[in-house]
Amino acid sequence: MNAPAAPEPRAEDRPARLTVGVVGAGRVGPALAASLRLAGHRPVAVSAVSDASRRRAAALLPDVPVVEPARVLALADLVLLTVPDDALPGLVEGLAGTGAVRPGQLIVHTSGRYGARVLDPARRAGALPLALHPAMTFTGTAVDVQRLAGCSFGVTAPEELRLAAEALVIEMGGEPEWIAEEARPLYHAALALGANHLVTLVAQSMELLRTAGVTAPDRMLGPLLGAALDNALRSGDAALTGPVARGDAGTVAAHVAELRKHAPGTVAGYLAMARTTADRALAHGLLRPELAQDLLGVLAGDAPDTDTTGPADGPRGDDR
Known about the structure:
By secondary structure, the chain is α/β, with parallel strands linked by helices. It has 13 helices and seven strands. Mean pLDDT is 90; it is low at 1-15 and 303-320.
């Protein structure tokens, strides 16, 4: 008979636990530190400036003292630098220049834009530099800790620290994805294009639906956008549908006319996305070349008659 499996050790009983500090209590830092606490590490200090950041720290890291950044580094084995991208290089140089960085200390930043090289001033002071970027949008609440389960992290670190970086990501419930130093800006641009612009598009769509009289635009869009996202992730460009992919120039012209009347601020974005959609639909054989000319004319500002009842020879019957 097989012996019963040994119980999993409690988090607090596991070896090599680290004290954790957070410099910058924005939406990301407290959530990551709270996740590390669940893995058995011990948050010991956080720096926060605004009232909102202090509230986040108090909610996600209760009983963890709020101190100056230099004090965070003095107390922590693992320091999370979770500040805006543009502030990161100056922060690293400042901390290293004042002697706050200790040899052997793990210095982690969460910027998508930068790799490990931005931490070179800390590395010269003896620190171990890691770039761990969670590919996730954060709210600054406890729900973020749950969302880290299965979240991909863009990982960049010196080769000798690769295993340590990946282990930390796994402890936070994430999935490490190795990103080369030189590829970090492109990696970050890809995420911003997909996630940040999506928020803008959805917000604009909800505003337009309200203008059109829809009382619950979120309820209307939820199933549609969920299906579109699922199809896009599964099939890429083959998932394209709608009037641009079908070459319905009259419908697109009607869209543009209505947007100019009711929401002129959305026209430029609509036209830019429609042009890109048309290019991709053409390249993948979804948009027939003979239908593309009128469509591209509309997108260039040469709008045909906006009657959408169909061409004189009858409807084409294209799949939607």
